[in-house]
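Hi W.,

Here's what went into the run:
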Amino acid sequence: MRHIAVIGSGPAGYYTAEACQKQFGDDVRVDIIDRLPVPFGLIRTGVAPDHQSIKAVSRRYEQVALSDNVRFVGNVTVGQDVSIEELVDLYDAVVLATGAPADRPLGIPGEDLPGVIGSAAFVGWYNGHPDFVDLDPPLGSGEFAVIGNGNVALDVARILAKTVAEFDGSDIVGHALDALNAAPTRHITIVGRRGPHQIGMTPKELGELGHLERARPVVEADDLPPEDADAALDPGLRKSVTHLRNFAVASGNGIDKPVTVSFDFFARPVAVEGDGKVERLIVERTKLDDMGAAIGTGETYAIPCGMVVAAIGYKTTPIPGVPYDDKLGRFTNEEGRISPGLYAVGWARRGPTGTIGTNRPDGFLIAETIAADQPAAAGKQGRPGLDALLASRDVDPVTFRDWQKIDQAEIGRARSGSPREKFVAVSDMLGAR
Ligand code: NAP
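Here's what came out:
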């Protein structure tokens, strides 16, 4: 019997488990270990709460989770409750599928001021991640700057812009809904250091901004490259740029809505300023060099705001004993191989890019790599060994059946119009088993 431990129960973790089932058939046991008592990682706490169709992919993971040779082991922190070295001793292969849950620093003066928040923290707050329940984002000024031109910046701006009614059908947590509803939101500025042709926003997600109840997108026509230059773009990016062109036309039509979502392109953040808290973001106007990189022009201006959300990409959280590439913000690996018996997959392997589905081929690749590296099982202990170790340390693991009870409890306490009200404290999750 081959024993595989997958660390992290998000998309990369479940696709890896699925791939190992296909690769090794009945000859494998997979343990999916997660530090939270609830599974699905990014699907639960990263994907926007108003994008329920994307979250539905967890149903597929559920099928994997419920098969006989896969087990969920929640509420176990690797590096604390059990070490990597111990897992490598117990399992034929240990696969790190821990994603990239940490914010990258902005690296500008003033970024420590209260009110500068990373997108991982802000997204975690409105999605009910236990680590960010107490974030208490300062929404009171009604003016926000969101740094970055990727889909996460778009998620953050849209969540700030929506009315309570627009969250119908979403699983946004109650504390966030109440706080957003009470906020006097007027203006959201999305700050991009490069231009419309360099955005990472996908068309479906960008198009949503044009259909909000109280908010309208604002794009300066002068920021857009000549229209015939769009022909050279990839089809997806071309569609996104078409949305921006439509927003620019609509911006000039004087449509009156109380909230604006402005795109400030060619604007590089250089400082956050304020008296003890965020009052403004200072940006420097940029132009693009021949390689498409942003270079400063020396001209700066201020964007008044009471909160800055930096949606500039994520990094993997280091684990004691695992080589880590600080510059790339992920585990040091060669096509998923870290050291004998230790692998990385998904964002922990290649950095935070791509869609959820990108992790599927990643999972299959790592299963093939394990098969190539280890043609036969080495007779390791696997599950019984882990269980004995955890019991000796008074660790209280959560099973998938436990999660199903937590799941039902969350569904049972949903407010009207919402599929669930998540538990946000680990103790409440454990109590609902
Ligand atoms: P992203 O697409 O890489 O965007 C990061 C943005 O931050 C880029 O515009 C980048 O600009 C900018 N940036 C980086 N460092 C900066 C700095 N120091 N100052 C100013 N700007 C800076 O990453 P993401 O938005 O975090 O998304 C991560 C992945 O998840 C992406 O693949 C995304 O598509 C995916 N995602 C998908 C969805 C969805 O499908 N609905 C939702 C959320 C996320 P440059 O381009 O100039 O580097």
